[in-house]
Specification:
Elements lengths: L5 H49 L13 H10 L6 H7 L2 H15 L4 H9 L9 H9 L14
């Protein structure tokens, strides 16, 4: 009921009695309910007119579907023709990250024990990353570092 609790409802009734008075309150309730009924009837008539103008192919058209959230929920999320839920549930991102870490460690020639220090970005004690030390130590004086296509 419009998310109104019992205490709030009692408060609204007491305020209505205080504002309009006990003698005018029944007439006000009748007027408000009559107005709401007319608005609903006008709305339903307008919807029926639009449906009749659109033709028979739109006989099951709902105006709530014009809301973008409802449209996406109805046409994309509920209809799983492509099997997207199955694909989404099939991914285990934690294991994928662990596998990628193993692949990069293997590619860089690191062992499992040195991968934990390499993931922090430094080796034991010094502030220089492990990869830079390997490159610095492997270069001859005057030799250019190897070209890394992934870094550019």
């Amino acid at each position: 009921m419009l998310d109104i609790g019992p205490l709030e409802l009692i408060t609204l009734i007491v305020l209505a009695v205080l504002i309009f008075g006990p003698d005018k309150l029944p007439k006000m309730i009748q007027d408000v309910s009559r107005t709401l009924r007319k608005i609903r009837q006008f709305s339903e008539n307008a919807k029926e007119d639009i449906r009749s103008e659109l033709g028979p192919e739109f006989k099951d058209f709902e105006f709530e579907d014009l809301n973008p959230k409802t449209f996406v929920r109805k046409h994309v999320l509920e209809k799983d023709e492509l099997g997207l839920k199955e694909i989404r549930n099939g991914f285990d991102f934690k294991s994928e990250v662990a596998e990628m870490a193993e692949v990069t460690d293997t590619a860089h020639g690191r062992t499992a024990s040195s991968s934990s220090t390499a993931s922090t970005g430094s080796s034991s004690g010094s502030g220089t990353p492990d990869l830079l030390k390997k490159r610095e130590s492997g270069l001859q004086p005057g030799e250019r570092p190897p070209y890394d296509a992934d870094a550019t």
